Amino acid sequence: MEVETLIGSSKILKYWASLLIGLVLFFSIKYFIKNPKRKPQKKYTLDNEEDIEVEETDELQPALEEKPHLPFVAGINLNPNGAERFYRLVQGRRSIRSFRSQSIPDLSIIEDCIRAAGTAPSGAHTEPWTFCVVENSEVKQSIREIVEQEELMNYSQRMHPQWVTDLRPLQTNHIKEYLTVAPYLILIFKQTYGLSPDGRRKRHYYNEISTSIAGGILLCALQAAGLASLVTTPLNCGPALRTLLQRPVNEKLLILLAVGYPAEDCKVPDLQRKELSKIMVKY
Amino acid sequence: MEVETLIGSSKILKYWASLLIGLVLFFSIKYFIKNPKRKPQKKYTLDNEEDIEVEETDELQPALEEKPHLPFVAGINLNPNGAERFYRLVQGRRSIRSFRSQSIPDLSIIEDCIRAAGTAPSGAHTEPWTFCVVENSEVKQSIREIVEQEELMNYSQRMHPQWVTDLRPLQTNHIKEYLTVAPYLILIFKQTYGLSPDGRRKRHYYNEISTSIAGGILLCALQAAGLASLVTTPLNCGPALRTLLQRPVNEKLLILLAVGYPAEDCKVPDLQRKELSKIMVKY
Questions:
Q1: DSSP letter string over A105-117?
Q2: Where is the Nitroreductase domain positioned along the sequence (chains A, B) (predicted)?
């Protein structure tokens, strides 16, 4: 009996050992899962940006040259009443889906618009954008095929029913005729990182915000030029379109614009914009 | 001896049991850590957006009213040579850090600029933005204190040394004098979701891209008005600034702009912009 009791207590001790092993396993597994790349001290954070590895060197060099600063020379403006005049210009912009296929704006107009977009500010002046201008019919056809294929899945499977419902007043579906009708498509890629001449990766801080701001300037430029456009962000089409346009892996599609003159019978949704009091708060 | 052997083999068996317990623990822990909210089938995806819960109802209603579409009426433009003229307007824009504190632009100018920004396109016309315009000195002082406190930590601890080095040619540090000197600060918040009159959450598709595009239009408007600005994205300051300005929890700070007229002795970094051939590709 005494021996049996001993074995009994020894059993409990052995189960305690199992428990201990289990606990050690638990915490070590938890540790490794929480830190998949074993980077327990992620010291350098950047909101909303992917963290890229930058090679450490003994002496860090800035991406830009260090030069003395220059006196600021103010540019031109639209005075008098520049703000009001500019508001009247952009308030006439609407997203349209019916373009005139026969009226092709001169490429130099598109180029000036992209020059304007390229004046956008960017994190540490990295200018992390590429504007792909597509005029070629076959390329436009391929883009349309990629987008329609993905959009069919988006509308039927990937998008929440509420989302599809919210789009109903805009009368959109997965058929994107404008992609082959519009004389130009502009695909705006954000560069998630850059490459130095010596092949080292350069960080592109806030590349998505910077490139979107450039997109906003582009829209104003197109409006100033008398051109209409449609801003789209085709869900899940980025990789296929990047491959089609042979863009490098550091570039990711952000915005796809259709650009041209509106068709004669072009219609737009009956939308109102929010009043100033709904979008501005004064302190 | 035979009894001892039996106990020995029983020990091994018991260790096998521990191993089994450990393995079971491993996979169940891994499962729960990988699926913290136990949502294994995330069906509706939206690139780069936080997934918000939308209440399911029997009949889904669109956020916008369903109305017949209207004929498109083209707005004004800057013709002749609209694109070129617009490029000349925005190419004079530079980010400046020295503002004239005594020259305060009329609030109506700022209002027109924000009206212009509010014409930006947005996913399903959700208009997911709020522009907080700060003229009050005490509020500006509080903003500066929050930003400088965070920026000191950003520069010394959070930012990668390469990032700090990349900013050296811009001669920036954690001291942000312009935040109290500039006559206006504009804090642009993105609304990550909206609220219906009945309190239900409305999805705000692509709110970050939409709000950044609005920011780009705002920059053009300010330039058209003859005003200078500085775009910043203060790292980690969002929650404190949101609390200071008493903005609701669905709003997140995206951009902080300082706005005003440049100081007499204002200097800017000696920067060049990329040539068109470096940012545009033709297909």
A1: --HHHHHHHHHHH
A2: 91-261
CATH of the domain at A167: 3.40.109.10
What pLDDT sits at residue A62? 87
The most distant pair of C-alpha atoms in chain A lies apart, rounded to whole Å, by: 106
Return the higher-pLDDT residue of B120 and A50.
Answer: B120
Instruction: Give the tens place of pLDDT for each residue, B106-142.
Output: 999 999 999 999 999 999 999 999 999 999 999 999 9
Query: Number of structural domains, chain A?
Result: 2
Q: Which tens digits make up the pLDDT trace of B8-67? A: 555 555 676 777 777 777 777 666 565 544 443 444 544 444 445 545 556 788 888 899
Residues B244 and B104 both lie in one domain: yes
Which tens digit of pLDDT belongs to each residue from A165-217? 988 888 888 999 999 999 999 999 999 999 888 888 888 999 999 999 999 99
Asked if residues B213 and A207 have their Cβ atoms less than 8 Å apart, the reply is no
Q: How many residues does chain A have?
A: 283
- Residue B54 CA, distance from chain mean position: 22
Question: Is position B56 within any domain?
Answer: no
Query: Does residue A96 form part of some domain?
Result: yes
* Omega prior to A80 cis, within 30 of 0: yes
Name the residue among B91, B113, B208 with its Cβ closest to that of A75. Answer: B91
Tell me, yes or no, whether A115 lies in a domain: yes
Share of chain B above pLDDT 90, in %: 63
Range of the domain at A25: 1-45
Where is A228: in which H helix or E strand? strand A228-232
Strand order in the sheet with A129-134: A228-232, A251-260, A184-191, A129-134, B280-282
Across the A/B interface, how many CB contacts are shorter than 8 Å?
Answer: 456
DSSP H/E element including A71: strand A70-71
Cβ atoms of B114 and A280 closer than 8 Å = yes
Whole-angstrom distance, CA of residue A212 vs CA of residue A207 = 8
| Matching residue, tokens 């470096």 | B278
Token pair recorded at residue B96:
């400046």
Going by C-beta distance under 8 Å and a sequence separation of 6 or more, which residues neighbour residue B240?
Answer: B146, B150
Q: Which residues of B touch A277 (CB under 8 A)?
A: none
Q: Do A225 and B86 touch (CB under 8 A)?
A: yes
Q: What is the DSSP letter of B95?
A: B
Do residues A169 and A222 both lie within one domain?
yes
Burial class (CB in 10 A: 0-12, 13-18, 19+), B81: middle
Q: Do B22 and B149 lie in a common domain? A: no
What does residue A91 show for φ and ψ, rounded to 5 degrees? -70, -15
